[in-house]
Amino acid sequence: MNIDMIRAAATRIEGHARRTPLLSSPFLDAIAGRRVWIKPECLQHTGSFKFRGGYSALSALAPDVRAKGVIAFSSGNHAQGVALAAAMHGTSSVIVMPSEAPQLKIENTRALGAEVVLYDRATESRDEIGDRLSAERGLTLIKPYDEPQVIAGQGTCGLEIAQDANALGIKNADVLVCCGGGGLTAGVALALEADAPTLRARPAEPQGFDDVARSLASGTIKRNAALSGNICDAIITPQPGDLTFPIMQRLCGSGLAVSEQEVLRAMAHAFLRLKIVAEPGGAAALAAALFHGDEIEGDDVIVTVSGGNVDPAMFARALETL
Amino acid sequence: MNIDMIRAAATRIEGHARRTPLLSSPFLDAIAGRRVWIKPECLQHTGSFKFRGGYSALSALAPDVRAKGVIAFSSGNHAQGVALAAAMHGTSSVIVMPSEAPQLKIENTRALGAEVVLYDRATESRDEIGDRLSAERGLTLIKPYDEPQVIAGQGTCGLEIAQDANALGIKNADVLVCCGGGGLTAGVALALEADAPTLRARPAEPQGFDDVARSLASGTIKRNAALSGNICDAIITPQPGDLTFPIMQRLCGSGLAVSEQEVLRAMAHAFLRLKIVAEPGGAAALAAALFHGDEIEGDDVIVTVSGGNVDPAMFARALETL
Question: Which of B19, B276, B319 sits opposite A312 (nearest CB)?
């Protein structure tokens, strides 16, 4: 896993992924006490950065392997990213989801061209279903974060951040990344190391689900005590990845943890000042920039808004904080 | 008023205005029955395309004139665009607003560096106040649309649309523009004439407030019967501008008129599929693309989402249509 893989991924996704801008608002700067720059990956295809990793992985497969199709386990942003990337490559995708996944997510994933296979979490094994389908059809598994070509794809977001930061003359800034398994955080950290080495990636997580922050602090992989019970569901994973953790350990600053209320307020500020839609997990880094300024260094701070796939009721809840 | 003025404005605003992308979603394509491309000017500085015109006008002033400051009459997007453009030029701005303007708009305009002067619509004349302040201080009036350098600034949005459409190979498409006084519509039409002459600008307006559509249909300037009573307040003006109307008459296709319910649904779809915040007036063109497909020609349609300055209660109302 190295910067050359990220640059190769950037070449492959050019013209296919969106080149998202860096946004800012003087009102957010005033809250944060420094200049805040927002990388809105909610504007990416399928509404999250996950399309980058999905497209990178699909485009890196040998044509005859890719032609047999791919498979992913996800009920969320990774599912949609892989489904669209497969469709754009003219191949098929199977997305394995728990049968209790929201109907809207199932329908959206199907609409993007995927075959959705539902399983009963109480009685069936996801991995067994995946193994059987893969064996029968020769499908390639696209893992959500612990996969080099997926990390490389997410790293393209970091190349863009580095390019824009250099153009703006931003030298001394933390780059806060909404962090689940660490694919985006590790990819961004590698890109910054190469192209903007004075900037420092730092993971942002929900309070109580800060496995990456605790793992970084202790030097060994720590698990989350629970995997549900927080609105930032998109960035809650059991533990940092085996591939992503060593990268984060080598390159990242300490993690930041934000409350649900801070996340909802960050979503509301993104609505009011940036005119973008952030999902709870996608607003964790912005919440850290706005409300944890004393834990951040530098005159500027750069944050990812990593996704915008939020249902209207949750969004309305965020707006009520204004 | 010609294309050279738009190109000169583009040179002046480069690096100051945001270069907004073209967004799309397969879900919107399915509703519209053709490919839909969205130019999200809600992501522009101050949340609307008005910043382009404001910056263009400020940057076109002679330095000694500009140094005395500018004045504008507006309680909306033009006010914020002019205020920020003035601040970015290191000069002062006076924004004259009715005293019943929403407190949030007054505060936002002040926060962008403007001096806000309130007047009582029942007892005071806006123009008299403006004339007096201009005479006392040597302020230059920046009109919201019937001003060549403002039209030139809005036209830069059209240059970007033309550039992206050409890169995408889009040859046969209507370009629907949310239309009030016609500054954006005329500017976009001129830009398309020069750089993408097979594309056709068409104004989109609220039903019952379609002065531009009626003016185009009859060949003479028609007035709106009322100036309030519709959620698309940002694009309701008394009549087409004296400068903008001849340009629209020469270059634009017929106007489209959309209902309030269609506008709210378009805002909800922009939330759900594009992750952007559209204000009602900013969603008129998208509403036309999604729900008036039988009045549109071409395999593709391009729409401006011209602004995103909407209060949370109105946005929540839009989300309820989902």
Answer: B319
